[in-house]
Design goal:
Layout: H1 2-32, H2 36-40, H3 48-56, E1 63-65, E2 68-70, E3 74-76, E4 79-86, E5 89-93, E6 96-100, E7 112-114, E8 130-137, E9 144-153, E10 156-167, E11 181-186, E12 193-195, E13 198-199, H4 201-232
Parallel strand pairs: 1-7
Antiparallel strand pairs: 1-2, 2-4, 3-4, 4-8, 5-6, 6-7, 8-9, 9-10, 9-13, 10-11, 10-12
Helix pairs in contact: 1-4
Length: about 270
């Protein structure tokens, strides 16, 4: 009995490890294969685009709290983008922000509604006039994330930085290279790929269990189901030879397998 429990525990740990590895591989694979649209398209922010979207769908209005603007989440297959900005707002009427210091906004245009806490557990930009984006990856649930922050003055971008695992595809000289580093790195055209290194506990756990179950089904489940079905029908579990009429436990005449589930002799 102890040996059986030890084997069961070892198999359980193996499948959990396979599930965790698959969760990481899927999230990193999605991050590496982000489409051009996912890399370049941003969530609606302050301006006419946000106002137009808010008019079409009130649920898509950005949210505002204590000087921070939280744009609606942008969803792609396996990717969620969450954008936050810190801006100077001039006026607030009721639960809505009516206009800001941005001259391109028209007075009376509702661009955000006030909330009691940041949505989606988002990160808040530390510096004024900056934008921070959280990118979440994984399927079926989001399991990994990394941050990207842009420092800007009005419409001029001063600099960018990301927190994650990065590697450049090419050196400035044009030679191919693979190089990785964990931590905060300045954004650059050289750093063409970023991998998420921070874990979303709930999503990681759900994905790990999902992929562990998938691996178990693939490696053992299908074979076990087939064996049970053949046993019920009185067939050899290996080659499906009809064992009816043979003594219990006798080997299969076709493949030689000794089946412990051979039926009793036919009467």
């Amino acid at each position: 009995m102890p040996r059986r429990w030890t084997r069961t525990a070892a198999l359980a740990l193996l499948f959990v490890a396979l599930g965790a590895a698959t969760t990481t591989a899927v999230a990193w694979g999605i991050a590496l294969n982000r489409t051009t649209r996912a890399q370049s398209t941003k969530a609606p922010s302050t301006g006419a685009a946000a106002a137009d979207q808010a008019t079409a769908n009130d649920a898509a209005i950005p949210e505002f709290k204590d000087g921070f603007l939280f744009s609606p989440a942008v969803e792609y297959p396996g990717i969620t983008e969450l954008h936050s900005s810190r801006l100077e707002f001039w006026n607030r009427k009721g639960d809505h922000i009516e206009y800001t210091s941005f001259s391109r906004l028209s007075e009376g245009v509702s661009i955000a509604r006030t909330v009691e806490q940041p949505p989606d557990g988002r990160h808040i930009p530390a510096n004024p006039m900056s934008r921070i984006s959280e990118y979440r990856f994984g399927w079926p649930a989001r399991s990994y994330w990394y941050l990207g922050q842009i420092e800007q003055c009005a419409d001029v971008i001063r600099g960018t930085r990301c927190e994650g695992l990065w590697f450049p595809l090419k050196r400035p000289t044009g030679s191919s290279d693979f190089k990785s580093s964990i931590g905060i790195q300045c954004g650059s055209s050289v750093f063409e790929r970023w991998l998420p290194i921070y874990i979303l506990p709930l999503g990681f756990t759900l994905n790990t269990l999902f992929y562990a179950a998938a691996w178990f089904t693939y490696l053992f489940g299908i074979r076990s189901i087939r064996r049970n079905l053949r046993t019920r029908r009185g067939l050899c579990t290996g080659c499906a030879y009809d064992l009816k009429g043979l003594p219990p436990g006798s080997p299969c005449p076709e493949c030689g397998r000794r089946s412990a589930h051979a039926p009793s002799p036919a009467t």
